[in-house]
């Protein structure tokens, strides 16, 4: 494989691969003006931290780099518009191949790649920025109120269970399909988020760093507590995977009346969100099955990222 690339070649490769070719090739990308609320987000994917190049196909790395951003848009109730890619690539990896894979993933997920930057670096690093728009006010982690029901858009822990098996030496292609897809091809719950915003959700967050940790973050920002009755666990996963494994990219939604949202999801052919508990006024009360629930999950930048407090 020829890894002696130039940035112009990367740009030309992406122009040939993505659906937003007219927006690429200049120092800025132009997106049509809109009267809707605009939301932006940005996430890094770094070899040795979030993925392992020796174990992950490049297409899966590219997909993850886009999907983690669109999951943040989903939690805002946003419709994606476009993405940007800043790429640092070591000599052993063809930047053209990874950039094309990102452009293809962005197209599949409805957020065409419209520009970015490339450079050589010691470690493969992808920084994707996503732009979206929302009718009305975007959902945030703030706003959950006492009496709201807590919903999750699907079972949890599959990505963590799949990663554990891959790290133990199991080939990715040998994983059960649901574990493989959860780990290598997570799907941001964009339609669920858009419906949640339309049907009066008060707050939302995506489960990226661990369900218990992310739920605590929502409660912290809203100044409330919560009571969980149960946690939906994916097949072949454990309760520990579901509570703290992270990278599920399901949504946690706080909403006063969940029935209309559940009905709307069913009518749209989406998986029905699962009611798992409720919001309470006392911010000190955070329980699962009546027992205190500590936050567990991934803390970015920590020397020991799997934590409790």
UniProtKB/TrEMBL annotation:
Keywords of this protein's UniProt record, alphabetized?
Answer: ATP-binding, Kinase, Magnesium, Metal-binding, Nucleotide-binding, Thiamine biosynthesis, Transferase
Q: Identify the residues that bind ATP.
A: 116-117, 141, 208
PurM-like N-terminal domain ranges (all copies): 25-134
Q: What class of enzyme is it?
A: transferase
Q: Pfam families from the xrefs?
A: AIRS, AIRS_C
Amino-acid positions noted as binding substrate in the UniProt annotation, renumbered to this chain: 50, 247, 298
Top-rank taxon, per record: Bacteria
- Annotated residues that bind Mg(2+) 4 are located at 27, 72
Coiled-coil annotated residue ranges, if any: none
- Annotated Gene3D superfamilies: PurM-like C-terminal domain (3.90.650.10), PurM-like, N-terminal domain (3.30.1330.10)
Gene name linked to the record: thiL
Record: residues binding Mg(2+) 3: 27, 72, 206
Q: Name one GO biological process term.
A: thiamine biosynthetic process
Q: Name one GO molecular function term.
A: magnesium ion binding
In what residue span(s) does the PurM-like C-terminal domain sit? 145-285
Species of provenance? Acidimicrobium ferrooxidans (strain DSM 10331 / JCM 15462 / NBRC 103882 / ICP)
Described by its record, this protein's role is as follows:
Catalyzes the ATP-dependent phosphorylation of thiamine-monophosphate (TMP) to form thiamine-pyrophosphate (TPP), the active form of vitamin B1.
Q: Which residues bind Mg(2+) 5?
A: 209
Query: What is the recorded name of this protein?
Result: Thiamine-monophosphate kinase
Q: Which SUPFAM superfamilies match?
A: PurM C-terminal domain-like, PurM N-terminal domain-like
